[in-house]
Design goal:
The structure is a homodimer.
Chain A lengths: L2 H19 L8 H11 L6 H12 L4 H23 L8 E2 L2 E2 L1 H5 L1 H20 L9 H15 L4 H11 L6 H26 L4 H28 L2 H4 L5 H4 L5 H5 L1 H18 L8 H12 L3
Helix pairs in contact in A: 1-4, 2-6, 3-4, 3-9, 4-6, 4-9, 7-9, 8-9, 9-10, 10-14, 14-15
Chain lengths: ~300, ~300
C-alpha cells in the first residue's frame, strides 16, 4: 500500500460525504454556511473519520452506514480549531497557510461557526441509518462517548489545562493530562465509534482502544518535535508556536533524544495492540508508522 | 394555582437536578466547572425544562425520567447566553445584575464554558433512562430535533441574522425569522422533547407544537416591549439595549399599540391550541398568561 495515496483517497471520500451531509453553501443565512465550510474544507487529513472507518473495516463493519458518524468527528475537530484560533485563546492568524476563520469572517461569525459545527456533529450522529449493526442502543452509546470525549472530561478539559498551564513550569503528568484529553480523547473515541457501530466484541473494542491511545500519544509527541525542528511549509503551520506561547512540550520536558525514543515506543505499542488482526488492520498499521515517520 | 409560586417550585426542582447531573464544582480542572456553574446557576426561570416537563404532564409522561433531557435544554440556553454576551457579539457586561461569564472568568474560559455546556447537553440526553416510554428510537428523534433547533436552522441561524441585521432597516419577515429561530425554535423543541419522550400521539404533538410556537412569539414580542418600557430592576437586565444595539423590534416596526395587540393575539392562539386538555394543561395555560402579563 502506498500509504500517502491511500490516505488521500480516503480523505477525498470523506470530503465528498461531508459536502453531501452538510446544508448547501448557499443556504440562508449564507455567511455562516460559508464560514463553516471555509474552515471545514481548508485541507486536513481527515484522520478522525479515517480512524472510525478503519476500525469498522477491521471487524467487517459497513463503511457507508457509519459515514455520518465518522463525519461528525471531523466537525468536532474543526469546531475546536476555530475556537482555539480565536484572539482570546491562541490568537492565530493562519491555519494551514490560510487566514483563520475569525480573520476571514470576523470574531462573531467564527464563534458561531464553531458552535454550529459542534451542534451539527450531533445532528449527523442522529442521522445514522439504524439497522442490524447500528442498533439504536449502540448509536446512543456512541453519542454518549463522543459527548464525553469532546467535553470537560476530554477535549475541552485538555484545552483548559493547556491555557492555564501556559507560561508555567509543568511536570510530565500535567503534560500527559493535556494531550490525553486535548487530542487523545478524540482519537480514542474515533476508533471506538467505528468499532461500536460495527458491533465489535469486547476484546476487539479493548484492542482497538489500546491502539488509539498509543497512536494519540505518538502523534502528539511527534507534533511537539516537529514544532521545534520541522519547516513551516511541510507541516502547514507556523513553527515554534509552542515556544512563542511558552507551552510545555515533550522535547522541552524530556529532551529531543528521549522524545524521539518515546514516539517510537508508542508506535510499537500501538502495533502490538492490533497484532492479532490480518491485513484488514493494515491501514491502522501504516497510519501509526506514517505519523511517527514525519520526524525524519 | 399561584403561578409564580408554582414556577419557582418547579425551577427549584430543575436546579436540584441540574446540580446532581453535572460534575461537581470541584472537578479538575476547577475553573471551567466553576465558570459553567456560575452562569448556569445565575438565576433564570428554567422555562425550557419547565416546558418539557409540563408537556410530559399533559400526556401522563414520567417527569423524573425525562429530567436529564429537560435539563439539557437549559444547558443549551445558558451556553447561548454566554456566547451572545461575548465582546465580539453583544458585548454585555451584566446579565441578571451580575458580571457576565467573560467579565468574571475572562474570554477564553467563557468561550470554553459555553462549548462545554453545549457538549454536556448531548451527554445528558444520552443519559436518559431507556424504557417503555423513552424508547431508544424516541431518544434519537429528540437528539435529532434538539440539534436542529439549536443549530444553523434554528438558534444559531437566528443569532446570525440578528447580528448581520443590526443597524439596518429590516422588515417584518426578517424580524420574524430572527425570533422564530433565535428563541422560538428552542421553545418549540422543549415542548416536543417532553411530548415525544412521553410517547405523544401525532395529534397531541401537533397541538403542543402549535402552543409552543405561539408562546414563543408572545414571549418575544413582550420582551421587545419590556426593553422599551420596563425598568431595569424588575426585568433584571439593562433596558433600551435594543436601541443601543440599533436592533429592530416589534414596537419599533409596528408601533407600541399594535405590538401589545399582537402579544395578546399570540396568547389567545396558544390557549386555543391546547383547549382540548383538562387541568393537566393548566401550567401551560398559566405560563402563557404570565408571559404576556409582564407587560402591565
Amino acid at each position: 500500500m502506498d500509504f500517502k495515496i491511500e490516505l488521500k483517497k480516503r480523505a477525498t471520500e470523506i470530503n465528498d460525504s461531508l459536502d453531501r451531509l452538510l446544508p448547501p453553501a448557499r443556504t440562508y443565512p449564507g455567511i455562516i454556511h460559508e464560514a463553516l465550510r471555509y474552515s471545514l474544507f481548508a485541507g486536513g487529513k481527515r484522520l478522525r473519520p479515517a480512524l472510525a472507518l478503519a476500525a469498522a473495516e477491521v471487524i467487517n463493519g459497513c463503511r457507508r452506514d457509519i459515514m455520518p458518524a465518522a463525519c461528525s468527528l471531523e466537525l468536532i475537530h474543526t469546531y475546536s480549531l476555530i475556537h482555539d484560533d480565536l484572539p482570546a485563546i491562541d490568537n492565530d492568524d493562519l491555519r494551514r497557510g490560510m487566514p483563520t476563520c475569525h480573520k476571514k469572517y470576523g470574531e462573531a461569525i467564527a464563534i458561531l461557526a464553531g458552535d454550529a459545527l459542534l451542534t451539527m456533529a450531533f445532528e449527523l450522529l442522529s442521522m445514522c441509518p439504524v439497522n442490524n449493526s447500528i442498533t439504536p442502543e449502540r448509536l446512543i452509546k456512541v453519542i454518549s462517548e463522543i459527548s464525553r470525549a469532546a467535553g470537560v472530561g476530554g477535549l475541552i478539559g485538555g484545552q483548559v489545562v493547556d491555557i492555564v498551564s501556559s507560561s508555567r513550569n509543568i511536570d510530565g503528568s500535567v503534560l500527559e493530562y493535556i494531550h490525553r484529553n486535548k487530542t487523545g480523547a478524540m482519537y480514542r473515541v474515533s476508533v471506538r465509534t467505528g468499532a461500536i457501530l460495527s458491533g465489535a466484541a469486547d476484546d476487539d473494542l479493548e484492542r482497538l482502544t489500546r491502539y488509539a491511545d498509543h497512536l494519540g500519544l505518538a502523534f502528539q509527541i511527534t507534533d511537539d518535535i516537529l514544532d521545534l525542528v520541522g519547516d513551516e511549509k511541510s507541516i502547514g503551520k507556523p513553527v515554534h508556536s509552542d515556544l512563542k506561547n511558552e507551552k510545555a512540550t515533550y522535547p522541552s520536558l524530556y529532551g529531543m533524544e528521549k522524545a524521539l525514543l518515546m514516539s517510537q515506543e508508542e508506535k510499537e505499542k500501538a502495533l502490538e495492540a492490533i497484532e492479532v488482526y490480518d491485513e484488514r488492520a493494515d491501514f491502522l498499521r501504516e497510519l501509526v508508522k506514517f505519523v511517527v515517520k514525519r520526524n525524519h
